[in-house]
What does this fold into?
Amino acid sequence: MPRDFDSLIAVLHADVLDAPSGKPPRQIAEDLGFRRYSTFMNQIEQQEGFKLDANLVLPLMRQTGSKRPLHYLADRLGCVVLDLPHPGHPGLEALSLQAIRAAQEVGEVLGAYREAAEDGVVTDAEKRRVRDKIYESLAALMTFARSLEDA
It folds into this structure.
């Protein structure tokens, strides 16, 4: 998440104003069943006397097309959210290729760490690179796991 937010509402507010789905705020309010656009905006802007219902978080994410609120919450809890493809029902050959790809990704993590630690110092940039490789590896492993369940 490139921007650092101070609250979940701030994330939702930013997503409503600039929705990845391309929907304008007025349309989002209408699609969520708000009769008055101003009431919706007062809630999403945290105006005094207005509170956003927690039950609107998921519908807002669907309307805006954003998973940033989910990433925000996961980050605050020390967790990671991975987007996984829906591979359908792969055959055994496709599963074998996914398993090989997952193993390659794990190998790339170990190689990236070895390279970063070679000089005895791991810089912040190197830590980010290794972390990114770890996430790619996790995604590959979880994609394989999901495919295996679907097979």
